[in-house]
Amino acid sequence: MMRAVVVAATLLLGVGAVVAQQDAVKHAQGFMKGNGKNAGALAAMIKGDKPYDQATVDTAIAQFEDTAKNLPTLFPESIKGVKAEGDYSPSPKIWEDQAGFSEHIASFAKAVADAKVAIKDIDSLKATLPVIGKQCGGCHETYRVKNS
Amino acid sequence: MLRRIILGLLLAGVVAFGVYWSLTATWLTSAVATDAAYTPNLANGQTTFNAGGCSSCHAVPGQPDRTRLGGGLALPSPFGTFYVPNISPDPVDGIGRWTEAQFVDAVMRGVSPSGFHYFPALPYDSYAHAKRDDIRDLFAYLKTLPPVSGRVRDHDVPFPFNIRRNIGIWKWLFMDDKPFAPDALRPAQWNRGAYLVNSLGHCAECHSPRNFLGGIVASQRFAGGPDPDGKGWVPNITQKGLSDWSAKDISYFLETGQTPDGDTIGGSMTSVIGNMSQLSADDRDAIAEYLKSLPPVDGPSRPGKAASDSGKS
Asked: Is the pLDDT of residue B60 over 90?
């Protein structure tokens, strides 16, 4: 009886760990998808599909700030090696090169803080969004891998 | 009787050898050597350099300068690993001593100065459609870039693909060396886009499936397929895959690397964006207009993905 309880408890713990792992991945993906949606909304104004709207800019900047704040804890060691659902997974380099990863996060946070001050109208948006985009791309290039 | 059979066999052998020899010879040498003296347009040479994506493969890997063309990048493929050569103007290790005619032959015909076939890892089957003057301007532009010393190691291509003469057969089977012909019924911008995509931009080289001999499957041109380097999938850029991208979305993507859903592009397209972002906005718009005109074509289905999703992501 005791043995059965122990086995069941271990299994439950194992299941719990896997669930927690997937939740952590989903949590990180939620931030990234939110960033994408907001970057897309800003790009739509640059392309002229939508008129310039400061509220949209403020929402986007708030989302980016939130991401920058959360990034240091968004990829716990427990999800290393997990293949995420969707097109991309976190690269093991996030944990192998923690200093480099932290540097990228700091650099992204700075670009967002600068953008918050800089973006006032369509021209400053045009000048600033690519700077943030480079931060996204620069980090993805190293710390994100395509699922094959 | 026996003598006749032997004679017949010998004759057939000679004919077969003759056919093989002529198919695999480097016939396609250009006549540019006899052209009149030419005043190159360096600005157009730079545009050709950016549109042609030269630096994506030839720039020294692991450093940010797109104009240090010392080569060395390893290009894995199903036929072996190619090591990209030095095309900087270095007189010893690069192309510093090449003539313009040799350069045009190399880029547009895939023939080296010493007369052997290059592997089609150099996309000369696309560059063959380029305007010769664009390539001559490119040559002049490359001469203005910094010389980089250092010879790159030989390709690591196993038998039988390492027999250079056989590339002549590949060319005969798959290479179309007709110059680009504009479509008079289409606007100038569309024609500029068609030219950039099909010749210099060599988009079809990665964005099309290939057959077992490494030739592009013509009926599925631009319909995507497995990544040539063996990892992941190259998207379908016909209207099957890009129907929900506007022409503006494509232009903006080529300039910034940002997709309409706000994601940033990764992988080998990153350096392509590095080139495309240097082009004029007009050229990017032209590419977008042409791509929007490509009829939807189903590509090969991506393993592990739902059929409805095969053209995307």
From this structure: yes
Work out the burial of residue A141: count CB atoms within 10 Å of its CB; fewer than 13 is exposed, 13-18 middle, 19 or more buried: middle
Closest CA to B234 of B154, B169, B302, B305: B302
Rg (C-alpha) for chain B, rounded Å, is 21
Q: Which residues on chain A are in Cβ contact (under 8 Å) with B267?
A: 146
Complex ipTM value? 0.77
Which chain B residue's Cα is nearest to A131? B256
Tell me the per-residue pLDDT of B221-248, one tens digit each, with 9 for 90 and over.
Answer: 999 999 877 777 899 999 999 999 999 9
- CA B305-B308-B313 angle, 5° bins: 60
Of B233, B248, B266, the CB nearest to A141: B266
Residues B157-187: tens digit of each pLDDT: 999 999 999 999 999 999 988 899 999 999 9
For B256, the closest of A49, A133, A146 (CB atoms) is A133
Burial-class residue B171 by CB neighbours within 10 Å (0-12, 13-18, 19+). buried
User: What does pTM read for this prediction?
Assistant: 0.86
CATH 1.10.760 fits B182-313, yes or no: yes
What residues in A contact B265, CB-CB < 8 Å? 137
Question: What value does the mean pLDDT of chain B take?
Answer: 91
Question: What residue ranges do the domains of chain B occupy?
Answer: 29-179, 182-313
Provide the H-helix boundaries in chain B: 2-24, 42-52, 54-58, 100-109, 124-127, 132-142, 167-174, 188-195, 239-242, 247-256, 269-276, 281-292
DSSP letter assigned to residue A144: E
Binning pLDDT at 50, 70 and 90, where does residue B312 land? very low
Quote the CA–CA distance of B133 and A116 in Å, as a whole number.
47
How many domains are contained in chain A? 1
* CATH code (residue A74): 1.20.120.10
Closest CA relative to residue B286, chosen from B194, B182, B223 = B194
pLDDT for A131 equals: 93
B281: chain A residues, CB-CB within 8 Å: none
Cβ pairs bridging A and B (under 8 Å): 54
Give the percent of chain B with pLDDT over 70. 94
Integer Cα distance of B87 and A1 in angstroms: 75
For residues B283 and B290, give the distance between their C-alpha atoms in angstroms, rounded to a whole number: 11
